[in-house]
Every structure is written in structure tokens, then in C-alpha cells.
Design brief:
12 strands, alpha+beta, 52% helix, single chain, 21% strand
């Protein structure tokens, strides 16, 4: 019995440690750049969007230190920006090196702020069948940075995530197909849910009481795994259906909401879902909560696809693949969490420290996110 209790305590503390480890997680959108490479009839062109906030941190753009980057300050550093970026991107076509140059820069707005836009010209030897990219932008400054690649060859598109964990990637141009596009979008969906701490904490807030049953004024352990499983299935299904609806509407341009409102509402949803575990107001139809707030989370997911700048003919494929990827990522989280939580459900450790203590940690973290997003301030370290 003592060994079982020790095991239960270790698992419960591991769950709490994971929540505590999430405390320094970024509340804002992670550092991203957007790289588009296009080949039409053997000619290559490109575009590279890089966040001004990241460039300010890397090379300094705010010359007078007033906290704002003017067009004059940005224009004065165009040559430095191009040199810094191009030194961190190399392109090979088959076994030959492509020459990459940047034309006059401009500024564009993404969902998370202003970006400088580098129009790229590529000169590659011959007509390549394989493209190799080596990408190290901000690798020495931010290990979480991602370069979102949109590669188009004669109308066939591929996406990929570049970054410190996958600095060099090879793309077989001859095998680009709808199937490879689908796999790419699905992979991006999995990746997005796994790095989306706000989405994960919202899901965990709903899952924590799934192995318990509300009885009068307190939670008691669920009697069977089947009971908990069906509760989780209803919650995950409701969340999936809801965010699929708004993800589709937003990506297709039917509905558009300001990113700041959406991100603030997502943080608020995490706070409310976790508070409900401590002072329970909704304890039987939590699937309805998952559906209602899932509509908001769908707009957050849509910002990823929108910023990729997908061609119109790839939208349907992107929606299906990305959605399935998100669901696969969610399923992995549920499969890890539910058996452990069910095994610990009868312990005071789970009900007092994991359920209540974990929910309090989630409320604190999401509350800081909410303040940051509503007032556009930075409180937590990156």
C-alpha cells in the first residue's frame, strides 16, 4: 500500500510540476517569421516577413529609444536587416547553391504586430528536383522561434516549420502532391496545439474534474473509467466541433475578429474554466462550456493558417489537415492525462493538490495572460 501511495504521490507531483513549468510560458504569440518561396516555369521568387519586435531585440531598430519604431528608423536599417536575415538562410537546388538577394523592403501587419517584408530574388542553377533549406534566424536568441514556410512549385504547395530543432530540411519538388500538402497541414495542427499553452490549459481545466462526480457540495471519485471516458469524449467532441466551425469561418473570410480581442477572450476562458473547478457552478454539462469557449479558440487557430498566406485552392485541404492535426494533438494529451488522473482520483493528493492546486496555478497564469493581452503589456518573461 505504501508503495502505491508513493507512486501516486510521484505522479501527482509530476502533474503539478508540469503546471508550474508552464508559468514562464509566453502569453503572446510565439516568435514567428513567414517565408514564401515560389517557382513558376523555372523562375524563383520569394517573400520573407520578419517581426519588427524580434529584429529590435536582435540588432536594434529604435534609434532614439522612445519605444516606437518609425518608418525612418526602419528604412535607415534596411541594409542591416537584409544582411542579418540573408546570413541566416541558405538555399541549395540539388547540389548547387542558390543566390538569394533582397529587394526594397516594406511593412505589413500580421495578427501580432508589424513585420518588415523582404521581397526575395533567387537564382538557382538549372531546374532543380530537390530544394534544401538551412534556416537559423534568431536561433542564438530564441530557441522557440519558428519560420513558417510556404513553398509553391507550379501551383502545388507545401508548408513546413523551420527552426532550431529542424534547421535543415530537404524538399523533393517532384513528389509534391495534395497528399504531402495534407500531411504538412496536419503536422502544423499537431505542433500548434502542443505549443499553444493557453489551449492546453483550457483543455486540462475541463479534464481535471472528469474523473470526479459532483455530489451535493463536493466532488467524489467516479466509480468507473467508462463514466470518466464518456465525460471526456463529450467535452473533446464539443470543443472540436466548436473550434472547427469558427476556424472554417475565419479562414474562409466569412467572419473576422481583432486578434487582441480573440487572444484576450481565450485567456479569459482559461481563467473561468479553472475557477469552475474550485467554486463549481457548472458541473454536469461542461461539454456546453467546451463548445461555447471552443468557438473563441477556433479564431485563435485560424490566425495560424491566415498568417501562412495560403493560396485559395489550398484552403479546403488546409482546413481538413490542420483540424485533424489539432485533434490528434488533443488526443495525445487526453491519452496521457486520463489514465493517470483516473488512477489517482481517490487520493486526497489528486483532489486537493492536483485538482484545486493545479486549477489555482492555471487561474494565476491565465490571469496574467489576460492582463497582458487586454492592456498590451509584458509581465512574464519570454
Amino acid at each position: 500500500m505504501s508503495r502505491a501511495r508513493s507512486w501516486a504521490r510521484a505522479v501527482a507531483m509530476a502533474l503539478l510540476a508540469w503546471l508550474v513549468g508552464a508559468l514562464p510560458a509566453q502569453a503572446h504569440k510565439p516568435s514567428d517569421s513567414y517565408l514564401t518561396l515560389t517557382q513558376i516555369d523555372g523562375r524563383w521568387s520569394g517573400r520573407w516577413d520578419i517581426a519588427l519586435r524580434d529584429l529590435e531585440f536582435a540588432i536594434g531598430l529604435d534609434a532614439n529609444g522612445d519605444g516606437e519604431i518609425t518608418w525612418g528608423e526602419l528604412r535607415a536599417r534596411h541594409a542591416d536587416i537584409a544582411a542579418y536575415a540573408l546570413a541566416r538562410l541558405s538555399v541549395r537546388a540539388d547540389d548547387g547553391i542558390c543566390t538569394v538577394t533582397a529587394d526594397a523592403q516594406r511593412v505589413d501587419e500580421h495578427t501580432d504586430g508589424a513585420y518588415t517584408v523582404l521581397p526575395l530574388a533567387l537564382a538557382c542553377p538549372g531546374t532543380p528536383t530537390r530544394l534544401t533549406l538551412h534556416y537559423t534566424l534568431f536561433a542564438d536568441l530564441d530557441p522557440q522561434h519558428r519560420g513558417l514556410l510556404n513553398l509553391s512549385v507550379n501551383g502545388a504547395a507545401r508548408t513546413a516549420v523551420l527552426g532550431p530543432q529542424a534547421a535543415t530540411q530537404v524538399f523533393e519538388l517532384a513528389t509534391m502532391s495534395r497528399w504531402t500538402q495534407f500531411i504538412d497541414f496536419a503536422r502544423e495542427g499537431v505542433w500548434h496545439i502542443w505549443i499553444g499553452f493557453d489551449h492546453i490549459l483550457f483543455l486540462l481545466s475541463l479534464l481535471l474534474p472528469a474523473v470526479l462526480v459532483w455530489e451535493g457540495t463536493r466532488w467524489r471519485p467516479a466509480e468507473t473509467f467508462r463514466e470518466s471516458f464518456w465525460d471526456v469524449l463529450r467535452i473533446v467532441t464539443a470543443f472540436t466541433v466548436a473550434h472547427s466551425i469558427t476556424l472554417s469561418l475565419a479562414t474562409l473570410g466569412v467572419v473576422s475578429l481583432p486578434s487582441r480581442w480573440v487572444e484576450s477572450a481565450i485567456a479569459a476562458s482559461v481563467v473561468l474554466a479553472a475557477l469552475n473547478n474550485i467554486w463549481s457552478l457548472i458541473h454536469r454539462r461542461r461539454w456546453a462550456v467546451a463548445f461555447g469557449f471552443g468557438l473563441i479558440h477556433g479564431f485563435g487557430f485560424a490566425s495560424v493558417l491566415a498568417d501562412l498566406g495560403l493560396p485559395r485552392d489550398a484552403l479546403a485541404l488546409a482546413l481538413v489537415g490542420f483540424n485533424l492535426g489539432v485533434e490528434a494533438g488533443q488526443l495525445a494529451i487526453v491519452m496521457l492525462f486520463l489514465p493517470l488522473a483516473f488512477a489517482l482520483r481517490r487520493t486526497a493528493l489528486y483532489r486537493r493538490y492536483v485538482m484545486v492546486g493545479g486549477s489555482l496555478l492555471i487561474v494565476m497564469l491565465a490571469g496574467v495572460w489576460l492582463v497582458e493581452r487586454v492592456f498590451d503589456v509584458k509581465l512574464l518573461p519570454a
